[in-house]
Amino acid sequence: MSSNAVARSPALAGGTDNPVLALDRITKTFPGVKALDGVSLALYPGEVTALIGENGAGKSTVVKTLTGIYQPDGGDILVDGVATRFATPQDAARAGITAIHQETVLFDELSVAENIFLGHAPRGAFGLIDWQTIERRAAEILSGIGAEIDPRHKLRDLGIANKHLVAIARALSIDARVVIMDEPTAALSHKEIQELYELVDKLKAQGKAILFISHKFDEIFRIADRYTVFRDGQFISDGKIADVSEADLVKMMVGRDVAQIFPTRDNEMGREVLDVAGMSHPTEFADIGFTLKQGEILGFYGLVGAGRSEFMQALFGITKPSAGQVKIDGTAVEIRSPADAVANGIVYVPEDRGKQGAITALPIFQNVTLPSLGRTSRNGFLQLAEEFALAREYTRRLDLRAASLDTNVGNLSGGNQQKVVIAKWLATKPKVIILDEPTKGIDIGSKAAVHEFMAELAAEGLAVIMVSSEIPEILGMSDRVIVMREGRMAAELNREDLSPETLVRHAAGI
Amino acid sequence: MLQRLLTSREALLLGAIAVLLGLIALRFPGFVAPANLASVFNDTSPLILLAIGQMIVILTKCIDLSVAANLALTGMVVAMINVAAPGLPVVLIVVIAITLGTALGMVNGVLVWKLDIPPIVVTLGTMTIFRGIIFLISDGKWVNSHEMSAAFKAFPRAEILGLPMLSWCAILAVIVFTVVMSRTTLGRAAYAVGGNPHAATYTGINVGRTQFWAFTLSGALAGLTGYLWVSRYAVAYVDIAGGFELDVVAACVIGGISIAGGIGSVGGAVLGALFLGVIKNALPVVNISPFWQLAISGSAIIIAVALNARANREKGRIILKSAEHAT
């Protein structure tokens, strides 16, 4: 469905320009932190407003303010032009505001219908829950958004995309006038994203005001009518999306001109360090084989669910492959556990930042030395002086600023925590580093820093495997690319043969 | 550094114990006489031994409810061995107790590690099984004081430098496990596993194996305590130390060991145990009913947890660049 085929609902066709919901100079302060500094935002019926900003711009705080989770310290929330206070999330829901969060907040063990009506279930006689009405209305809402889901199924039996539809159905069940979508496409495949776009078009046609938060410019230009840009908790600009270019938005976001420039890489490649042959797994991937040289960056491209991360986990010893051989520096090695992998010079920085993260209750130096304890201990006894020396060396190299290496990592800022994680892996002196979606969900400024760093690692002779779903990143960073499709290698491409079209063609199997 | 030491959980708890002793001294000065304090410590030693083991288990995000049953089973076995072979040297009895306790701890550890059963379920099960085994091997009969050899009963009471062996065992365990937790890779792994199991896995630490060793150490300490308990009270029967596992967990919680794992210290566990020990010994002396004692212990647990929860509350995110340097 193309967007111009969607007409405004008749009631609104007159071109009302009054926002259904607006924030007027909202300020929100946390102890020692001003998260929002006089920001304004307006949402119009039947229109999609994209909220754009780098990580930490204050987008999540705005969502929480709009949905009554946070109360602003200053400024007004205007519903139909009337200043309103949302003391609780229920107040916001009553005003017709609903949010579909990044990680959908649903309940696996409840039925689809229960999930949709949890907290506002229709009541029958004696105030008891009216199950018939719930199931009937759930079915109505689901079919209204074109979802073929049985409302009596348990949520756990649904795939991620259908769970998303349930979340949307839940949002619609309260008769929402404003729908907030916080990075709704982050976990979806290409096809599912297209379906989401159609759904957004339907919601627009019903006259809902939509706040769409996304990092992806292509989708912003595909579905948004308006934009609002925040930077560092401050309002920067807003307007109609038709009046700006991608470059304009990026400039507003970062406050400077940033083309997505990748570092120039001209380092020599050394000898072959990794040789994988015939790696297979009963259910996840089959017959993966490649070689990797020192100083080389090997990109792994594919659609979500192509088996890239699953293969990396097997290579790192987390799961057990059914067949295959791994050689490091020409010698066959057995990798049965992550400890084996680390001992053989392979380290893996997984995709999930929350889980990969540092151990916040431990001090910096203990985090850095954790995978290197084999070297900094004798017969199981720790050598604290050696640990400090190692931690000092690598934190200095990453320019980590902290009062002391004794500081708990939990007391550091997010950026510094990330440096601790990187220092931890570099301190193992790895030969091969696997980076799984290294820049997923981070802003453009930080992305450039990660790319710069990746180039430095390669220049120092490290062999890098980069799993990425972002085509510009694959094109900009890789010396060679392996495209995976449905658990198999679909293509192995050299830098000269790379183009967005070839990547997509191989990944989709066209 | 000094300031950090003074504001640490352990220092706060030490202060609380000091205040408690001060209040008791107001009504009954004799309580704080060195000899009496030594006797309170001796009385608390079994709790200290078990709390240290429990602390390691809790650090790794597990819990060991079978410690008291392990203690009772080991105690019964060594008591029966003593009855059957009164000539067996006490050293050997101690070795047998530790070995048996270790083996029982390993059973918990293997079930948690290899079968991936939640620790609370595993140890609830083994707790019942251990008690059942005591009944089976003893026929439900008691092993009484007159059946035990003199040497068997004398060991925990034997004094070195004015302190009984029971106290020395606790002191030795405190020293050994302070070193284990702060200076060995196993200790470090325990903190890492409890603090963030996923990150620990990717770091090359085997989460299950670390938990296995935690249960094993807890079992070893329970085994040792089993012999000490039975010989000190000179009696062994099915229900000894019944419900004591809850005191052990309480000591850990009061001692600032996070029930969510990853945070805690040997010092905290010891102080938590001493806090309970002081209350238990002092209240009868100052004429407060034992029912109040339960209420006070319970309140102490809730206050300790509330204080820890406050201390561990997540800080707001730093979003504004200008705020980053202010912290």
Describe what this molecule looks like in 3D.
The complex is a heterodimer of chains A (510) and B (327). By secondary structure, chain A is of the alpha/beta class. Chain A folds into four domains: 166 residues, Rossmann fold (3-Layer(aba) Sandwich); 68 residues, no CATH class; 167 residues, P-loop containing nucleotide triphosphate hydrolases (Rossmann fold, 3-Layer(aba) Sandwich), CATH 3.40.50; 75 residues, no CATH class. In chain A, 32% of the residues lie in helices and 24% in strands. In chain A, the strands form five sheets. A six-stranded mixed sheet of chain A has the order 6-7-8-3-9-10, sandwiched between helices. Chain A has a six-stranded mixed sheet with strand order 16-19-20-13-21-22, sandwiched between helices. A four-stranded antiparallel sheet of chain A has the order 2-1-4-5, with helices on one face. The longest helix of chain A is centred in the middle third of the chain and has 16 residues. Chain B has 327 residues and is mainly alpha-helical. Chain B has a single domain, classed as ABC transporter involved in vitamin B12 uptake, BtuC, CATH 1.10.3470. The C terminus of chain B is likely disordered. Chains A and B meet through β2, α10 and β18 of A and α9, α10 and α15 of B.
Brief descriptors of the model:
heterodimer; A: 510 residues; Rossmann fold; 4 domains; 6-stranded mixed sheet; disordered N terminus; B: 327 residues; mainly alpha; ABC transporter involved in vitamin B12 uptake, BtuC; two-stranded antiparallel sheet; 15 helices
- How many E-type strands of chain B? 2
Counting H and I runs of at least 4 residues, what is the number of helices of chain A?
Answer: 17
As for the number of domains of chain B, it is 1
The largest pleated sheet of chain B is described as: 2 strands, antiparallel
Q: Which strand order do you get reading across the main beta sheet of chain A?
A: 6-7-8-3-9-10
The CATH topology of chain B is ABC transporter involved in vitamin B12 uptake, BtuC
Task: Please list the strands of the largest sheet of chain B in the order they lie side by side.
Answer: 1-2
